[in-house]
Amino acid sequence: MNAPHVGLLPAGARDAITDVAGVTVGHATLANGPVQTGVTVVHPHAGDPFREKVPAGVAVINGFGKSVGLVQVDELGVLETPIALTNTFSVGTVATAQIRRAVAANPEIGRAWPSVNPLVFECNDGFLNDMQAFAVAESHYAEACAAASPVFAQGAVGAGRGMSCFEMKGGIGSSSRVVATAGRTCTVGALVLSNFGKLAQMTIAGRRVGAALAARLPSDAGTPERGSIILLLATDAPLDARQLRRLAKRAGAGLARTGSVYGHGSGDIALAFSTAYTVPHDAAVPAQTPPLLPDATLDPLFQAAADAIEQAILHALFAAETVTGRDGHVRHGFTQQAPDWTALEAAP
């Protein structure tokens, strides 16, 4: 069953973040009894991200998170490594793997050159995954990098293997939207690590189906939300770090449409980057920055960001299959539990 198309804007050819030319995604998935976790990597381009940085902006919607690298991205407005996603307890391991990979490509990092800023986002997959096993190794980051491709799986794969969404199975979801603005056609792509929400809040394409589902399915209604979501946006529109921070903020609009209230225990963090130009590490090399879009022309991109994030969350929900993990805990695939979701009555 496919997720419904949301919003008025058309999707790109893949309806994925990789509709932004040059962007690739790779996974390493660990699925073995109580270990249900992994690593997902997003590459902004095929070159060396340390030598050819891309502009980026961060928006922290709710800061209950343990990511690495956000402070420098906020300060300098660029990415220096691929973006890595994993579980909470594996952030340090994956950051070390990122540093080793950057040093291998650029041996003067940390010597004649400045250090590198690893960028790792996390969500807590401890309901399904035994995080205390520390199963993610540096080799899994390398595996995810090696697997990076414009075509990639969604759902219970990579970093999304152990994640939950509205008390059902969540994980990796992606989408894209194409817009016209300032006399050009631009693509906005989204990728989410979806691990948030209470069942009764679930909203699909404006339809409040969660309350009806909660009435017939087991629910953790009496427990507080302890999930998170990482929201990534890529675009080929020429934007600077300030504008990309504004774009990242619009991810919250798409998240809210699905029913999220950004709960106390939910770490909701958005990052947007542009592939329209790169910033050279070597200060002697002049940056070839194209003319930036005027702020007054950004509304179509803001709409695309909100629509693409909402769609990506639905893609994660619809793509994920049932997973049994730690201590026999189960998260059911949404389409397996609600194949007739369009017939559910909206909550009053």
Molecular structure report:
By secondary structure, this protein is α+β, with helices and mostly antiparallel strands. It has one domain (17-284, 291-329): L-amino peptidase D-ALA esterase/amidase (4-Layer Sandwich), CATH 3.60.70.12. The chain is 22% helix and 26% strand. It has eight helices and 15 strands. The protein has helices at 70-76, 91-105, 138-146, 210-214, 241-249, 251-257, 299-319, 334-337; strands at residues 24-32, 35-43, 52-63, 78-79, 83-87, 120-123, 164-165, 168-169, 171-181, 184-195, 228-235, 267-274, 279-280, 323-324, 330-331. Strands 3, 4, 9, 10, 11, 12 and 13 form a seven-stranded mixed β-sheet that branches. A four-stranded mixed β-sheet has the order 1-2-5-6. A hairpin with a 5-residue loop joins strand 14 and strand 15 (330-331). Helix 2 (91-105) crosses helix 3 and helix 6 (251-257) crosses helix 7 (299-319). The radius of gyration is 19 Å and the shape is globular. The model has no long low-confidence stretch (mean pLDDT 95). Belongs to the peptidase S58 family. Keywords: Aminopeptidase, Hydrolase, Protease. Its EC number is 3.4.11.25.
